[in-house]
Amino acid sequence: MKINKIACRCILACMFAFLMIQIYYLSESVLPLSEGKSWRNLACLFLIQSVCFAVCIFAVFAVWIAERMKKDRTSPFEALLLVTAEGKLKKEILLWDQQSFLVAGAKNGKDIFIETVHDPDSDRHLYGVCNLVGGSWYLEVLSQSRPIGIKRGPDNVIYRLREGNLYKLTAADVIYADTCKIIIKEKRLTNRID
Predict the structure, then answer these.
(1) In sequence order, what are the residues at sequence separation of 6 or more whose Cβ sits closer than 8 angstroms to the Cβ of residue 5?
(2) For range 22-30, the mean pLDDT
């Protein structure tokens, strides 16, 4: 993101420098020489300047749109931590390239799994599906037959989720499915100089 901001600023600085050079060239070279002559050179200069100006503006918007699309497809969380009832870390699921995942459980209700939407195990009970939409994760409960809940931030209350509703997930949320819990691991900000 920092690189794109620098690129946009460089494009704008180049556009400003180009306009200053054009104004100087126009006032010092073209206008004094154009007395009594055709305005063809002046019209060509304005045409070239307009095209360059439009290209610079288009480049700024293209960089901005590309950054926006990248942000919308990037998970704000680094991973999900699947923790058993005993408090042991069962699995860590990285979310960098994920667009959606399923929260599934064994038929006996003793184990929870995180699976991809494209390759679900038909032998498991589906609790819910999480989708990345506009840079935010949303959880939708698929069945009320087994309880699934969420603890929001510092609250010590676990709210039972209802089927068919969308719930926006934050980094402070903890998802509870039967005896397991899913903890959201937030992305760490790195202080690198690129």
Answers:
(1) none
(2) 70
